[in-house]
Amino acid sequence: MALLTPQGVKEVFQFQKREGREHLRKLLNWEEFDELRDARRSILLDTLYESVIFAVGKGFPWVEVVQVVKFTEELLRETEGRSISEAVAVLGGKLRDYQAQFNATHLLALCDYFHNTFIRHFRLYQYVLGQDQEVNLTVARLEMCAPPQPLPLTQGTERDQWRHEQQVARLDAEEVHKRADVLLLKEALSLEQTQMLQKTFECPDEQEQAPRTLRREVLEHLVREAIHIQIACLRELLQYEIQVAFDILDLRLQKKTLNLNAPLPLLPNTTGPVPREVSPKTSKANKGKKAKVKK
Fold first, then answer.
1. Residue 290, in any domain of the structure
2. Is residue 243 in a domain?
3. Please, what sign has the CA dihedral across residues 109, 110, 112, 116?
4. Which long-range contacts does 200-205 make (Cβ < 8 Å, 24+ apart)?
5. How confident is the model at residue 207 (pLDDT cuts 50, 70, 90)?
6. How many CB atoms lie within 10 A of CB 32?
7. pLDDT range class, residue 293, cuts 50, 70, 90
8. Of 104, 139, 167, 191, which residue is the least packed, with the fewest Cβ within 10 Å?
9. Which residues neighbour 68 within 8 Å (Cβ) at sequence distance 6 or greater?
10. CB proximity list for 75: less than 8 A, separation 6 or greater
11. Same structural domain for residues 93 and 52?
12. Could you read off the pLDDT of 91-135 as tens digits, one per residue?
């Protein structure tokens, strides 16, 4: 861990995963190992690398990212061979030990991360990292095939036609999106209406609840409130549906205009000898020759 610095973990994150893991291995001062034959060390390196990705993704400062890697390595080492209840206790103790290194938000995020990954799959971690695994490795040599030849250009789509198809597809997708928004609004308004009705029918005055009866004025008030809530939700839904209907009509008008102005498909080129036109005089002469021959 001595070589693990804020600049070092920043470089680990900036690399692609393969190069980042290798750089992390060097920062941890680990010797080179066979990824296939030493699966335990490979998985351990993956776990430490994922802790870097998690910490950076949650906005931890680079100094705290180093502490997260250190936290992960210590947690894996100290929970080896323990039961899951003991592992939870160890995790809680580690969080208390590191509470001065992180603020409350980052400490809570760290707790959630290890509960959802390490603790949830604790038995799997113990099985893989806590004992030597027998590796049966089979090496097979495969012949790499070259990619297929691209199709001829004659089977492609003309540029203007392709652009037209893309524009039509975009308009269709917008229409589907508009209809989906209406369904989502219906569900949201239904939920909001239910919550507002429940809140309205809750009787705040305990004196009204004691005899379990409602005065006429209270009942009329509740009915008016319920009707008002339903009309308000319905008004909002109708306004949005009308706006969406106009939007969909506009999209269909755009699509109709595009179809009217669609580019004409290119006619295939025909090759071959052009037939010669036969003049009327030549045709009559040929017919006269044929008649003489018959006689």
1. no
2. yes
3. positive
4. 200/225, 200/226, 200/229, 201/226
5. very low
6. 8
7. very low
8. 139
9. 51, 52, 54, 55, 60, 110
10. 90, 91, 94, 114, 118
11. yes
12. 999 899 988 889 999 999 999 999 898 888 888 887 777 666 566
Distance CA 205, CA 222 (A): 14
20 and 100 in a single domain? The answer is: yes
- On the question of pLDDT at 2 being above 70, the answer is no
- Cα–Cα dist 218/226, whole Å: 12
Rounded CA gap, 115 and 292, in Å?
108
Q: Is the pTM of this model over 0.85?
A: no
Cα separation, 141 vs 213, in Å, equals 85
d(CA 22, CA 39): 15
Instruction: Report the 10 Å Cβ neighbour count for 45.
Output: 19
Do 165 and 203 reside in the same domain of the chain? yes
3 state SS of 38: coil
Amino acid at 28: L
Regarding whether 178 and 123 lie in a shared domain, the answer is no
**Residue 66 resides in a domain:** yes
Label residue 262 exposed, middle or buried (CB < 10 Å: 0-12, 13-18, 19+). Answer: middle
Q: Is residue 109 part of a domain?
A: yes
180 and 119 within one domain: no
Tokens of 252: 């269909």
| Residue 96 belongs to domain spanning | 6-129
Judge if 86 and 166 occupy the same domain: no
Same domain, yes or no: 76 and 13: yes
Alpha helices in the chain (DSSP H): 6-14, 17-27, 39-57, 62-78, 84-97, 104-114, 122-129, 159-201, 206-209, 216-260, 280-294
